[in-house]
Design brief:
- The complex is a heterodimer of chains A (228) and B (104).
- Chain A has helices at residues 3-14, 18-34, 39-48, 52-63, 68-79, 81-93, 98-106, 110-122, 129-154, 167-176, 183-201, 207-222.
- The model of chain A has no long low-confidence stretch (mean pLDDT 88).
- In chain A, helix 2 (18-34) runs parallel beside helix 4 and helix 4 packs antiparallel against helix 5 (68-79).
- Chain A is built from twelve helices and no strands.
- The longest helix of chain A is centred in the middle third of the chain and has 26 residues, at 129-154.
- Chain A has 228 residues and is mostly helical.
- Chain B has 104 residues and is mostly helical.
- In chain B, 33% of the residues are buried.
- Chains A and B meet through helix 2, helix 3, helix 4, helix 5 and helix 6 of A and helix 1, helix 2, helix 3 and helix 4 of B.
Chain lengths: 228, 104
C-alpha cells in the first residue's frame, strides 16, 4: 500500500467520528466566548492546546476566575492520558525523523489515536503506518478548527435561555461513564465526588486537585480487589 | 497577558504529554503503578467538575433538593450507563433539564 493510499485510508476511517466531534467543537466555541476570552484567544486555543476536554475545562475554570496555577495543573492532569497513547504507538514510530515525531505527537488526540491504533495493531509491519495517523490526525484537526470557529461565531446568535453551560457536565458524563467498568473505578469516582462536595462547602479553592488526588489513591488502592 | 501566558503554558504541557513518549528519552518499560494510576485520571478529574456543575451553592450552603440540574444529570448518567452513546446522553440530559425547568 502506497503512502497516499495509507493517508487516504486514515482520512476515510476518521470521518464518521466527526459526527460527535463537530457538535462538541461548536459547544466549545460558544462556551469560550461566554467565558470572557477574546475571539482570538478562543480560536487559537483550538490550535495551541488542540484537545477537546482540556479546552472545555480551561474555559470553564477561566469563567469562574480560578487561579491560573489550578487551571494549568488541571489541564496537565487531564492530558496525562496522552502519555499512554504515546507509549502504545512509540514502537511504530521510533524509526521516524524528529520532525515526523513532532508532527505526529501534535496530532495525537483521542479520536485520531482510537482509529489509527487499530490499523497499527492489525498491520504492524507496514512501513507507511505513520501516514495513516497523519490522515486521521489532520482530518480531526481541520474539522476541529472549523467546528470551534462555527461555535465562536454562532455563540452570540443563540438565545440565553438555552443554558448551554449545562452541556459541559453532560459531555463529561458521556465521557467517563463508559470508563467506569469496575469496583475500583466506582470507588474512585464516588470518593472524588464526595471530596469535591466537602471542599466546595468549606470554600477551599483546591477542590479539583484535592478531589482528584483522593479519587486516585482510592482507585489504585481498591484496584487490587477488581476481578481480573 | 496572564491569560495568554496560561494558554501557552497549557499548550506546551499538552504537547509535551504527547511528545515525551515518542521522543526516545523515556525508559522502555514504565512502572506498572504509574500505568495503573494514569487510567484513573480522566474519571477523578472530570467527576469533581461534573459534581460542581450539577450542584447549587449559595455561599457555602449546598442545595441538593429542587435542583433540576442534579436530576437531569442523574438521568444523563442512567442514559450513558445503558446506551454508552455520547449524543444520546447529551441530548436526553439537555432535554430533561429544559423540560424540568419549564414545568416545575
Amino acid at each position: 500500500m502506497s503512502r497516499w493510499k495509507m493517508f487516504q485510508e486514515g482520512v476515510i476511517e476518521e470521518l464518521p467520528l466527526q459526527l460527535g466531534v463537530f457538535p462538541f467543537g461548536i459547544i466549545y466555541g460558544i462556551l469560550a466566548m461566554e467565558s470572557g476570552l477574546t475571539f482570538l484567544q478562543s480560536f487559537l486555543l483550538s490550535s495551541i492546546i488542540f484537545g477537546g476536554a482540556s479546552q472545555i475545562i480551561f474555559v470553564q475554570l477561566i469563567s469562574t476566575s480560578t487561579p491560573f496555577g489550578i487551571i494549568i495543573s488541571s489541564v496537565a492532569a487531564i492530558n496525562s492520558r496522552h502519555f499512554l497513547y504515546g507509549i502504545s504507538i512509540r514502537e511504530y514510530v521510533k524509526h521516524l525523523s524528529v520532525t515526523w515525531r513532532l508532527l505526529l505527537a501534535y496530532l495525537l488526540t483521542d479520536e485520531a489515536y482510537a482509529v489509527s491504533i487499530r490499523k497499527f495493531n492489525n498491520d504492524p509491519n507496514n512501513e507507511f503506518l505513520h501516514y495513516h495517523l497523519l490522515g486521521t490526525g489532520l482530518t480531526l484537526f481541520i474539522i476541529w478548527q472549523i467546528s470551534t470557529l462555527t461555535g465562536i461565531i454562532l455563540g452570540h446568535e443563540l438565545p440565553q435561555f438555552l443554558e448551554l453551560q449545562f452541556i459541559i457536565p453532560l459531555t463529561f458524563i458521556a465521557i467517563i461513564i463508559p470508563m467506569i467498568n469496575s469496583i475500583s473505578f466506582i470507588c474512585a469516582a464516588l470518593s472524588s465526588a464526595t471530596t469535591a462536595l466537602i471542599f466546595k462547602t468549606l470554600d477551599l479553592n483546591l477542590w479539583i486537585l484535592a478531589s482528584a488526588s483522593i479519587g486516585l489513591i482510592v482507585g489504585v488502592t481498591v484496584s487490587r480487589f477488581d476481578k481480573k | 497577558m496572564t491569560t495568554w501566558f496560561t494558554i501557552f503554558l497549557c499548550g506546551i504541557l499538552t504537547f509535551l504529554t504527547r511528545f515525551i513518549p515518542l521522543s526516545g528519552l523515556m525508559p522502555n518499560e514504565l512502572p506498572l503503578s504509574l500505568k495503573k494510576s494514569l487510567k484513573y485520571i480522566p474519571v477523578v478529574i472530570l467527576t469533581p467538575i461534573i459534581i460542581n456543575s450539577l450542584s447549587i451553592y449559595e455561599g457555602t450552603e449546598l442545595y441538593l433538593l429542587e435542583n433540576n440540574k442534579l436530576y437531569a444529570g442523574l438521568i444523563a448518567i442512567l442514559v450513558s450507563t445503558i446506551f454508552k452513546n455520547v449524543l444520546a446522553t447529551i441530548s436526553i440530559g439537555m432535554l430533561s433539564y429544559v423540560l424540568m425547568s419549564n414545568i416545575f
